[in-house]
Design goal:
about 220 residues; six-stranded antiparallel sheet; six-stranded mixed sheet; mainly beta; about 0% helix
Length: about 220
Amino acid sequence: MRKAAISGLIALGLAFAAGSVFAGTATTTQYTPQHGFPDHDGDFSAMLIVIPQQELAEFDKPGGGNRQLNRVSRAEVGAVLAIKLVFTGLAADANGNGEVIYDLQVIGPDARIYADSDYKALAAVRGPVGDGRSVFDNRTKVVMLQFEPQDAPGVYTIKAIAHDEVSERKVSLETQVELLGAGAPATVAPVADTVEKPVVTKKKAKKKRHKGARRSKTRR
């Protein structure tokens, strides 16, 4: 069992397209500039997603840039995952600064806290936030998660509470990742809305044999 590690990360705001509900999760990727994310407390709204580690580079793109993110729903042993918190609707103090912190737990299939991953008051954003309507992320602290061979297969539930320290509002969030057993394929789902086209395969037409026709024999 590997302890979920915390790493520092500086990243700018994130723009989301409208999205879909993914099976096994309590949050959605639906976002609008007018209403923010569906999980909210007043104007403050947030979303919790788990993405492959390599996709953290997407957060280095300038604010407003197109970002290609995949939400991990099933993972294999050894995969390194990043737990990202994104939020909007922040309040600013008299100096124009905002502050968001978050608590986070990872609960294993046995309903116990996984690898001592019970974190309190992790810094997400501190500093100027403008009107607070941009989409921000946990640029300061990102929890990284890596499963090891001795970890039990099953569903791992990630719970977080995002706190807007200025407005004193908070949003409870939850998502899940299934650790697969040996031989099962991992899956990811795009965060942005996608439409899957049905796969059409052409069937070969069967040749009709005339009545009385004999099948040819192949000689070796």
